[in-house]
Specification:
The protein is built from 15 helices and 31 strands. It is of the alpha+beta class. The protein folds into 3 domains: 216 residues, BirA Bifunctional Protein, domain 2 (2-Layer Sandwich); 131 residues, Alpha-Beta Complex (YbaK protein); 98 residues, Anticodon-binding domain (Rossmann fold). Strands 3, 7, 8, 9, 10, 11, 12, 21 and 24 form a 9-stranded mixed sheet that branches. A 5-stranded mixed sheet has the order 16-14-15-17-20, covered by helices on one side. A 5-stranded mixed sheet has the order 28-27-29-30-31, with helices on both faces. The longest helix has 21 residues. The relative contact order is 0.14. The model has no long low-confidence stretch (mean pLDDT 93).
């Protein structure tokens, strides 16, 4: 394809809207253009890459015997009501009404739709196991779209669903998808860590995420350098500390009120009293589906709402508003503490880090007041003690006790053992060999296709631009004609272009009437794996320069041998 045949306008400036490397480079290379917050147009250069990513995913899904379907974007809201996810997904749902006022959701995910399909089509064990997949647009009303296509309101996902007769059968389907994902990311040039993950709103018994290490990521993963433990930071287990802070003492002192005017945060209170954050215990009030809870956590730790939700067996958990805190505790917001809360019929959930400390500081439930020398069990009784905090850098590994690292990352894939959550709720049953009616056991497997592209760019770039993995590259070869007005250069370039296309190597032929410097800069920016220069050396000795984008290595060959040489170079690329 000639340059003037493709809609592409490269940029030298850094777009002000760009927050991440991938967003910046996708805009500079004219892969995408922003239409509105979290909504992007894919231009031809970006579309070619998007189709490459889809093709990799499709090939690997077909390889494991999954069958492709296309599920509707418009989802009748009553299907989501069957599973209760009209409420759990409520904040991110885009909804619309038809002329008869029937409410539809723009598909944020498709569990209910595919389960409905299966309950119509599947009725016997002879049809199981079976896996269905689609590559489809999804819609989620993200409160903070960011990072370009990394977190957008409209995006493309591959989601597949396995239907199995029992848990053993599900494990087989799960393993097939797990292995397929490993191949997909390897082919895409995306280095992933596979970590234990929380099932979240999807539900189920087991889950793994495929994480790409990147500073652009909004997720974090926990890795142990000594053993094989890895987990999403929201899933990672926190061990109960075996010792209390050095500033604490085992002698239980009498609780006392102290005046802390205007001191609300842990840092303010600890600094005012000459203590550390670990000496203060925060009381955080949260709202469940039907009641409120008080959660206690050490001042130098952060609450993990997903762990808390699991511990309380709630469908959702949210932080209470200041007004709600004051109404349910009778205290002043910013000074809430555990002493006396049981009288308010509040369940008190303590993080396990609280059990081994004594004489800590807590809110005094009155304005400008805190209590010192507060002690668990003596001054208040917890309803439950559980691990409800976020793990942090240097905490002990829950498997081998070595210090862990916490690393920012991008979630590019997520797989779940759903079990019978959806089949029971939606009455998806099948007849067993013995004629028994049992719920189908399901699995769910998602990949963010847009995120594959962004993650590849985040992983493979330099100060000049993108370095495309060969299977994702929009073109295999970039052919630049230097001084294209020269008849000989133009003629040989045309022959090279045609020979590349006939050989199966896609080529972008830059025959613009512009300087060599501009073409070289665009070649580096676009990141096409192999660059061929037809210029002065071609006129002098019949040779062209061939350069690899990944490491800059360059060779000269007779132009007649350029196609074969480029194919050899392309096939030998490391990714």
């Amino acid at each position: 394809m000639r340059w003037d045949e493709i809609l592409i306008t490269t940029r030298r400036d850094t777009p002000t809207e760009a927050e991440t490397v991938s967003n910046k480079l996708m805009l500079k290379t004219a892969m995408i253009r922003r239409l509105s917050s979290g909504v992007y147009i894919y231009l031809p250069f970006g579309m070619r890459t998007l189709l490459k990513a889809m093709n990799i995913v499709r090939e690997e899904m077909n390889r494991i015997g999954a069958q492709e379907v296309m599920l509707p974007v418009l989802q009748p809201l009553e299907l989501l009501k069957e599973t209760g996810r009209d409420k759990t997904l409520g904040s991110i749902l885009f909804t619309t009404k038809d002329k008869s006022n029937k409410i539809y959701a723009l598909g944020p995910t498709h569990e209910e739709i595919v389960t409905h399909l299966a309950r119509v089509e599947i009725n016997s064990y002879r049809q199981l196991p079976i896996s269905l997949y689609q590559i489809q647009v999804k819609f989620r009303d993200e409160p903070r779209p960011r990072g370009g296509v990394l977190r957008s309101r409209e995006f493309i996902m591959k989601d597949s669903y396995s239907f199995n007769k029992d848990w053993e059968c599900l494990s087989g389907s799960y393993k097939k998808h797990y292995d397929a994902y490993v191949r997909i990311f390897k082919r895409s040039g995306v280095n992933v860590h596979i970590v234990e993950a929380d099932t979240g709103a999807m539900g189920g018994s087991e889950s793994h995420e495929f994480m790409c290490r990147s500073d652009a990521g909004e997720d974090s993963m926990v890795l142990c350098g000594k053993c094989s433990y890895s987990a999403n930071v929201e899933k990672a287990e926190c061990l109960q500390p075996t010792h209390q802070p050095a500033s604490r003492t085992q002698i239980l002192r009498k609780p006392e009120e102290v005046n802390t005017p205007g001191k609300h945060s842990v840092q303010e209170v600890a600094g005012f009293l000459g203590l550390k954050g670990e000496d203060v215990v925060k009381t955080i009030v949260v709202r469940g589906s039907k009641k409120y809870y008080a959660c206690l956590i050490r001042g130098d730790h952060e609450i993990n709402l997903l762990k808390l939700q699991r511990a309380l067996k709630e469908s959702s958990i949210e932080l209470a508003t200041p007004d709600e805190v004051e109404n349910v505790t009778g205290s002043v917001f910013g000074f809430t503490g555990p002493v006396g809360l049981t009288e308010k019929n509040l369940d008190i959930i303590c993080d396990n880090s609280i059990e081994n400390i004594s004489n800590f500081v807590a809110g005094g439930n009155r304005k400008d007041t805190h209590l010192i020398n507060v002690n668990l069990y003596r001054d208040f009784k917890p309803t439950r003690i559980a691990d409800v905090r976020l793990i942090k850098e240097g905490d002990p590994c829950p498997r081998c006790l070595a210090p862990v690292s916490v690393t920012p990352c991008i979630e590019v894939g997520h797989i779940f053992k759903l079990g019978t959550k959806y089949s029971e709720a939606m009455e998806l049953n099948f007849l067993t060999e013995k004629g028994e009616n049992k719920p189908v056991v399901m699995g769910c497997y998602g990949i963010g296709v847009n995120r594959i592209i962004a993650s590849a760019i985040e992983t493979h770039n330099d100060e000049k631009g993108i370095i495309w993995p060969k299977e994702l590259a929009p073109f295999n070869v970039y052919l630049a004609s230097i001084n294209p007005s020269d008849k000989n250069i133009k003629k040989i370039s045309q022959t090279l272009h045609d020979n590349f296309e006939m050989s199966g190597l896609s080529v972008l032929w830059d025959d613009r009437d512009t300087s060599a410097g501009v073409k070289f800069a665009d070649a580096d920016l676009l990141g096409i794996p192999v660059r061929v220069i037809a210029g002065k050396k071609l006129l002098e000795n019949g040779k062209v320069d061939i350069k690899k984008r990944v490491d800059g290595q360059e060779v000269q060959v007779e132009w007649e041998k350029a196609v074969d040489q480029c194919r050899n170079i392309y096939n030998s690329l490391p990714f």
